[in-house]
Design brief:
With 512 residues, this protein is mainly alpha-helical. Helix content is 55%, strand content 5%. A hairpin with a 4-residue loop joins strand 7 and strand 8.
Length: 512
C-alpha cells in the first residue's frame, strides 16, 4: 500500500488496522521532507534559540543546550518520556500508530530526515510491534508517553511485543535486518509530539464497533418481529419530515430487514395495540442519532489521521519554524466522547428491548420467555446481566474531555484526556456486544414461540445463524456459554453480511 501523506482513506486505515500490509511512501513526499530537514539543520547549526532544537522542553524551554549535546537532548527526551504503565496496546492499535506517525512526518512540516519515516515503515512492514503501555497520556502535548515508548523501540532501547510478552527491541530489529534509528536535531520531539495514539485508539474503536452496530440493527429488527411490533413507525414519510440523515437511514435499514415477514402480516389487521413501546418504535430516532454521531466522529478522525500534529512546525518555503499547539487532541477527545455516548445508547435501548421481551404484559410472549415459568426462570437473570452492563456503560460514558488536569508545572495547563477518552471505548463496545448477544438469544426465543410463522427472509438468516450452535431453551440450563457465543457473533460481524447484502442501503460510515 502506497502512503500519500495527507490523503489516507478510511479504507486504507481499516486495511492497516486489520492486516500486516507492506507500506511504501509516495516518492513525491520526499522532497518536502528534505526541505524541512534542511531548515532544522540550519537552526541546529545557528546560535538563535529554537524550541525543540537547542532548548529544553515544556517548562524548561528557556534552557539553552550546546551544539555538542543536541543529539543527547533528543535521546534523553525519549528516555525520560517513556513512563507509561499498564497493559500494552494491541498490535492493531500500534500498527495504526506507526502508519499515522509516518504519514504525518512525511508531509514535510516536521523537519525530520527521510530515514526516520523509512525506519517506521520498515518496522511496520517487518510485523514488529513496539511495546507501548496503554496508560499515561493526557492527550497534550501530544501522546507523549506512548509515542515515546514506540520511539524507544525504534532506537533499539525499548521492547517489542511478541506473543504477548516484551522482548528486547534491539534483538528484534537485528533479526529483521533493521538498523536502530539514531536521532538528529528535533527528531525525538517530532516523534512524540502528536495525536497518533489517541487517534489510533479512536479509529480502532470505530472499526471494532462497526460490526456491533450492524448486528444491533439486525437484532433490533428481529426483536420487532418477536414482539409482533409494527413496521409503521419506519414509514419513510415520518423520517423525511424530521430530516435527520441517520434516522432516515436507520428507518430504511429496518424496512428492508422486515420486508416479507409472515409474522408482521399475521397481525397487520385486528391488532388492539395502538402503539409499540419506544424501544421498538423509536429505534430510528435513537440509533439514527447514534449513527450521526459516529459519522461525525469518522470525519473528525479522518482529518486527524491526515494532519500534522507535532510542534514546532517547519515551513520550509519561508525558512522558518513556528511554535503552535496542534498536538492538543481536543478534536479526538470530543469525537471519542461522542462515540462513547453513541455506544452506550445502542446498548441502552437494546437492554430496554430485552426487558420488554421478558415482560409478558408488553410482549405477549410467555413470562421470561420460558414455557414453564416458575419452575424455570428463563431469561430473568440474563436481563439482569444486560442491565448491569448498560449501567456500567453509563458511567464509562462520562465525558473525558471535561476533566483537564494541568501538567508540566502549569506550562501545559489545559489538556484533552483524549487517550483515555478513546481507550475506554473498548470496554464499552464489549459491554454493548454482550447486551446485544443476550438480546439475540431472547428475540430468537421469542420467534420460536411464534412458529410456524416465519419472519422475513433476512431475519430468518439471523435466527438460523444462532440456532446452528445454540438451541432454543426448552428449560433452564447453563446460559453463560450461550451468551458468550452470541456476543462473539455480534463482535465478529457474523450478522453483518445480512445487512450488507441487502440492495440499495446507504453506507454505514460516510467519511466525506
Amino acid at each position: 500500500m502506497e502512503i500519500h501523506p495527507g490523503h489516507l482513506t478510511l479504507e486504507q486505515l481499516q486495511a492497516i488496522h486489520n492486516t500486516v500490509d507492506t507500506l511504501t511512501l509516495a516518492d513525491a513526499a520526499r522532497e518536502g521532507m528534505r526541505a524541512s530537514a534542511r531548515v532544522v539543520q540550519a537552526a541546529a547549526d545557528g546560535d538563535a534559540p529554537v524550541y525543540g532544537v537547542n532548548t529544553g522542553f515544556g517548562k524548561l524551554a528557556n534552557q539553552r543546550i550546546s551544539k555538542a549535546q543536541l543529539a543527547t537532548l533528543q535521546l534523553n527526551l525519549i528516555r525520560s518520556h517513556s513512563v507509561g504503565v499498564g497493559e500494552p496496546l494491541s498490535p492493531r492499535v500500534v500498527r495504526l500508530m506507526l502508519a499515522l506517525k509516518a504519514a504525518s512526518l512525511a508531509r514535510g512540516y516536521s523537519g525530520v530526515r527521510e530515514v526516520v519515516v523509512d525506519t517506521i515503515l520498515a518496522v511496520a512492514n517487518a510485523g514488529l510491534v513496539p511495546w507501548v503501555p496503554s496508560r499515561g497520556s493526557v492527550g497534550a502535548s501530544g501522546d507523549l508517553a506512548p509515542l515515546a515508548h514506540m520511539t524507544l523501540a525504534l532506537l533499539g532501547e525499548g521492547s517489542m511485543l511478541q506473543d504477548g510478552r516484551a522482548v528486547p527491541a534491539r534483538a528484534a530489529l537485528e533479526q529483521a535486518g533493521i538498523a536502530p534509528l539514531v536521532l538528529g536535531a528535533k527528531e525525538g520531539l517530532a516523534l512524540i509530539n502528536g495525536t497518533q495514539t489517541s487517534a489510533a485508539l479512536a479509529l480502532h474503536a470505530l472499526f471494532q464497533f462497526e460490526p456491533v452496530l450492524e448486528s444491533a440493527l439486525v437484532i433490533g429488527a428481529l426483536t420487532v418481529d418477536a414482539a409482533r411490533g409494527s413496521d409503521g413507525p419506519f414509514d419513510p414519510r415520518i423520517h423525511a419530515l424530521r430530516g435527520q440523515p441517520g434516522q432516515i437511514d436507520v428507518a430504511q435499514y429496518y424496512r428492508s430487514l422486515l420486508a416479507g415477514s409472515e409474522i408482521r402480516n399475521s397481525h397487520r389487521d385486528g391488532d388492539d395495540r395502538v402503539q409499540d413501546p419506544y424501544c421498538l418504535r423509536c429505534q430510528p430516532q435513537v440509533v439514527g442519532a447514534c449513527l450521526d454521531q459516529l459519522r461525525h466522529a469518522t470525519k473528525v478522525l479522518m482529518r486527524e489521521a491526515n494532519a500534522v500534529t507535532d510542534n514546532p512546525l517547519v515551513f520550509a518555503q519561508d525558512g522558518v519554524m513556528v511554535s503552535g499547539g496542534n498536538f492538543h487532541a481536543e478534536p479526538v477527545a470530543l469525537a471519542a466522547d461522542g462515540m462513547a455516548l453513541a455506544i452506550a445508547e445502542v446498548g441502552a435501548i437494546a437492554e430496554r428491548r430485552i426487558a420488554m421481551l421478558i415482560d409478558a404484559s408488553v410482549s405477549r410472549l410467555p413470562p421470561f420467555l420460558t414455557a414453564d415459568a416458575g419452575l424455570n426462570s428463563g431469561f430473568m437473570i440474563a436481563h439482569v446481566t444486560a442491565a448491569a452492563l448498560a449501567s456500567e456503560n453509563k458511567s464509562l460514558a462520562h465525558p473525558a474531555s471535561v476533566d483537564s488536569l494541568p501538567t508540566s508545572a502549569n506550562q501545559e495547563d489545559h489538556v484533552s484526556m483524549a487517550t483515555f477518552a478513546a481507550r475506554r471505548l473498548q470496554a464499552m463496545i464489549d459491554n454493548t456486544a454482550h447486551i446485544l448477544g443476550i438480546e439475540l438469544l431472547a428475540c430468537a426465543q421469542g420467534i420460536d414461540f411464534l412458529r410456524p410463522l416465519r419472519s422475513s427472509p433476512a431475519l430468518e438468516q439471523a435466527h438460523a445463524l444462532l440456532r446452528r450452535t445454540v438451541p432454543a431453551m426448552q428449560e433452564d440450563r447453563y446460559l453463560a456459554p450461550d451468551i458468550a457465543h452470541a456476543a462473539e457473533l455480534v463482535r465478529d460481524g457474523a450478522l453483518s453480511p445480512i445487512l450488507r447484502s441487502m440492495a440499495d442501503l446507504p453506507a454505514l460510515w460516510i467519511p466525506d
